[in-house]
Amino acid sequence: VIGVAQTGTGKTAAFVLPLLERLSVAASERRMRVLVIAPTRELVVQIEENSRAYGRHLPLRYATIFGGVGEGPQIQALRRGVDMVVATPGRLIDLMEQRHVDFSALQVLVLDEADRMLDMGFLPPIRRIVAATPKTRQTLLFSATMSKEIEAVTREFLKTPALVEIGARSTPAEAVAQWVVEVSMAAKVPALIHLMKDAALESVLVFSRTKYGADRIARKLEEAGIRTATLHSNRTQA
Question: Which residues are registered as beta bridge partners of 140?
């Protein structure tokens, strides 16, 4: 299956709910039957949390595999036996090389946010992972766009896929309202502070072109009494 849909359209539930039903009707052998690959640790954690919530009344085991943390607990989880694994490509390859991963019972492979994985240079690891899985698997690929690169990947990894497309391609989600405010450079931060005083805004994400800019904006917001945290590559994962 190829699923093309924007973020926020319920994609995770769309693939997790049928998979949980499929896992629940067959007795669990505590061997990996479903593998979901996603580009970032945050997305991996989110998919696993959603799966756990949707399947809270089912006797299934889940595991997450991602970098930036110790391998020990992840290896232990695989040894204990799991029904569903959600992983980033890099760490999964590491554990495959150490022979901690067994794909022999795998039935379904999900490539989530495939367009982002290609942007992040994950095509070679994904090729290695796909090559190690059984030929008889079902493959589900999800992407926000259907670019030429994604079409090439689907030809390589999928067999006669069904295409499910929600909404127009490359358009913003209809549920999101958008405005453009034109201001001078000097007025940008004061305008932002003014907007932030709207009581309806409980949580706000501000993007900056540079790390220095992010720190500067955060400092100005803090001076205006707005609690702020910065997030960029000069900061640790913790």
Answer: 110
